Amino acid sequence: MNKINLTAQRKAVLEAVQYDDGHPTAAEVMERLREQGQQFAYATVYNSLKYLTDVGLLRELKLGEAASRYDARVDDHHHIVCKQCGRVDEVLSPTPDEWITAVEKATNYKVSNSHVVFEGVCGTCAQHKV
Amino acid sequence: MNKINLTAQRKAVLEAVQYDDGHPTAAEVMERLREQGQQFAYATVYNSLKYLTDVGLLRELKLGEAASRYDARVDDHHHIVCKQCGRVDEVLSPTPDEWITAVEKATNYKVSNSHVVFEGVCGTCAQHKV
DNA sequence: TATAAGATTTATACTAAATCTAAATATAAA
DNA sequence: TTTATATTTAGATTTAGTATAAATCTTATA
Ligand SMILES: [Mn+2]
Ligand SMILES: [Mn+2]
Ligand SMILES: [Zn+2]
Ligand SMILES: [Zn+2]
User: Fold this and answer.
1) CA angle, A106 as apex, A105 and A110 as ends, to 5°?
2) pLDDT, tens digit, 9 for 90 and up, residues B42-87
3) DSSP string, A25-55
4) B78 and which of A59, B55, B97, B116 could share a cystine (Cβ 3.0–4.6 Å)?
C-alpha cells in the first residue's frame, strides 16, 4: 500500500529536480522555486527531498562536495564530474560484473552495490581550451 | 624543493592516521591523540590533516558520510564499506581500463580519475549472521 | 456539518563538520 | 639579539542539515 502523498510542496520540489538536468542541490532547488514565485520554508524543501528519496522518486547523490545533489533519474547509474566547469553528467554503463566479482574475492565482502564518480574534462571545456 | 615541514603536531597527527588502519575521521584522530595525552587544538588537527594531504602524505576520503576520513595509504585505490559494522577496507583492484574507455566514449569526457565506493557485508559480519 | 485525529508545513533553534580570524608562540634568518 | 616567517591556538563563523513544537491543512468519523 503506502500510497505516495504528493502535496503541492512535494510536487513542486520534485518538478524542480526533474526540470533541472544538472542534479541540483537543495539550495539550487530553493533558488529555482523562488524564481518561480513558489517559496517554501527551508525545512520543507529538505523534508520534501527526504520524503521523495524515501519513496523512491528521487535519488540522493553524494559526489564528494559539501552538499548532496538530487537526481530524478532513479535507475542505477553513476556520474562524471567536469573538473573545469563542475557539470555533472550521467554514466549509464554499469560497474563491470567481473570487477565486482574480483573485488568480492579480494576483500571477502559480499558486495551489494557501488557508487562511482568519474572525474575529468567535459567535451565543451576541452574545446574552449585554456 | 618545498621541503615538508613536519612539526611535532603534524607528526603526531600523521602517526595517528598511520597507526589506525581504519581510515579515521578528524574526530577519531583527535580522540586517539587525547588517549595518548597529546591534545591539540581542534583547528590544529584540521590544519595538519590539510597540510599532510596537500604535501601528499595523506589522502582525504569522502565516502558519503558526514565527515571526511583520512588514509595513510596514498597510492591510488578504492574502498569498500560494510553496511553492518561500518568498517572501511581497501580495494586495491583498479578501475578497469576498458570500462574507463567505454565511459569516455559514451560521455565525451576525458577521464582523469575515478573514486569508487563499494558497499556490502564484510566477512566477519557475514559469519555473525543476524 | 462539526469535530477530532492525523499529516504536513513552518519558523526557529540546534548540531556537526569544517573554516576563518587574529592573537600568541615558536622557529629560522639576518 | 632582533626581525621575519611560520605555526598553533581559542574562539567566532559558516554551511548543510536535523529537531522541535506550534500552526495549518487534510481526512475520517459521529
Ligand atoms: Mn544522474
Ligand atoms: Mn585506503
Ligand atoms: Zn566542463
Ligand atoms: Zn562488517
Assistant:
1) 50
2) 999 999 999 999 999 999 999 999 999 999 999 999 999 999 999 9
3) BHHHHHHHHHHTT----HHHHHHHHHHHHHT
4) B116
Best residue in A60, A62, A101, A118 to probe B by mutation, most B CBs within 10 Å? A118
Q: Is the dihedral of CA A60, A64, A67, A72 positive or negative?
A: negative
Q: Quick one: which residue's CA is nearest to C9's C1'?
A: A44
If one counts every other C-beta atom within 10 angstroms of the C-beta of residue A77, the result is: 14
Partners of residue A39 on adjacent β-strands: none
Classify domain A8-71 at the CATH class level. Answer: mainly alpha
> Could you tell me what percentage of chain B is helix, strand and coil, using 3-state DSSP and rounding each to the nearest 5?
40, 20, 40
pLDDT values of chain A reduced to their tens digit, one per residue, 130 residues: 578 999 999 999 999 999 988 899 999 999 999 999 999 999 999 999 999 999 999 999 999 999 999 999 999 999 999 999 999 999 999 999 999 999 999 999 999 999 999 999 999 999 987 6
pLDDT of residue B21: 81
**Residues of chain B positioned with their CB less than 8 A from the CB of A81:** none
Domain ranges for chain A: 8-71, 78-128
Question: Which CATH architecture group holds B78-128?
Answer: 2-Layer Sandwich (3.30)
Three cell numbers at A41?
A: 520554508
CB contact under 8 A, A106 and B118: no
Cα–Cα distance measured from residue B57 to residue B74, given in angstroms and rounded to the nearest whole number: 7
Residue found under cell 562524471: A80
